[in-house]
Each structure stands twice: as structure tokens, then as C-alpha cells.
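Purpose: get a first structural picture of the assembly so the mutagenesis plan has something to point at.
Setup: two entries, given in the order below. No constraints added.
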Amino acid sequence: QVQLVESGGGLVKPGGSLRLSCAASGFTFSDYYMSWIRQAPGKGLEWVSYISSSGSTIYYADSVKGRFTISRDNAKNSLYLQMNSLRAEDTAVYYCARDGATREFDIWGQGTMVTVSS
Amino acid sequence: SYVLTQPPSVSVAPGKTARITCGGNNIGSKSVHWYQQKPGQAPVLVIYYDSDRPSGIPERFSGSNSGNTATLTISRVEAGDEADYYCQVWDSSSDHPVVFGGGTKLTVL
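Result (C-alpha cells, whole complex):
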């Protein structure tokens, strides 16, 4: 079935780095734009980054620009988020999501928790 | 950047109709999508392209969008509908194209 599975979350100290992965299955990954979306504890949804199907177009939220890098490997059906210079305010559940035909997020992963704390 | 405004909470009795609004400048010119999120779970798309329902979403869920307000309507509300609901648009004029509303907590009395 159509599925997204995130991994790579964990506890990291401020200033540290972490790389999240999202494995896609059940659909032609290379046909779809993808995004990372996060949710801080008790807070709402915050879009983080977007990448086009080929990887040629990328956008970032101001809150992560210059620190986070989104990428994808269509041969491996995988999406990535390299997170550097992490701050306490980056603590959140990170979801990968598939971008549908009318720019809706039609498939979501289960999320991976990132905790930034000393 | 584009801003979407939702009421923090809406309460409704079982069997009644709940309406959750999403306000934005000329939002009627954009496609609005709605997500349901229950505690500890990932969001689920319940309405896309203003008023279309993904397969598996009950007909009780409907959407509309005009002027400066989009509305998610849940008819014959059930206890299982209690959740947070988020609206979202794609702002093609921006380098930050994905915008979420702040979310609305639906409480079933």
C-alpha cells in the first residue's frame, strides 16, 4: 500500500546535527513533489521544506533556511532532511508528506521525534 | 506572507453540525485543503481542492470557499470526529508556498 516511513529522529544537543530519512513505497516516488512538515509539542503544523519531483526546485521556511537541507534519491525512493545547527525550538515531530495534484498533502508518514536539548 | 486564521476551538453536540472557518485575504481565489489530526496520530486529509473528499472520508465532511473565508462543515457530528482540524493553502506567489492555519480543536459535547 501507499506508505511513507520516517526515521532518524532522536535526542541531540543544541548546535548538533541530525539527518532524517523518509522511505516511500506503493507509488512512483519520482512523480511526486514532497515536503517536510513539523509539529512542536502542543503546537500546530509548520511547513519546513519542499522539493520538486526532480529535485530542481526547493523551498524552505525562514525558520530553517541556511541550516536545513532537503534532498531526495529517486532511485532509492527516499526523501531526506539534513538538519544542522539545531536549536531548542527545532524540537518537534517531523513528518514527510506527499504533495498531491492540487497541492494538498494526501499521504503522511507517522512522524519521527526530534528533541534538541542539553 | 499569506496568513490563515482559524478559531482556536469549536464545540458541538453529537448529531449536530459543526462549522470550522479558515480566513485569509481573498482565500476564495486559492485551493483550500483540510486535515484532521487526532492525538498522537499523523494528520489525515479530509477535504482537498475546497470541497473534494478523498476516498474513505465520510460524506458528512464537506467544504466550501468564497471571498475571504473557507469553511469545513461536519454534519451529524460523532464522538469520533473530536480532533484538531487544520486548513492549508499553496501560495504560488511566495517563496514560502505552503501555509497552514493555526488549527481548531473540535470538541464533541
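Chain B touches chain A through 25 residues (CB under 8 Å).
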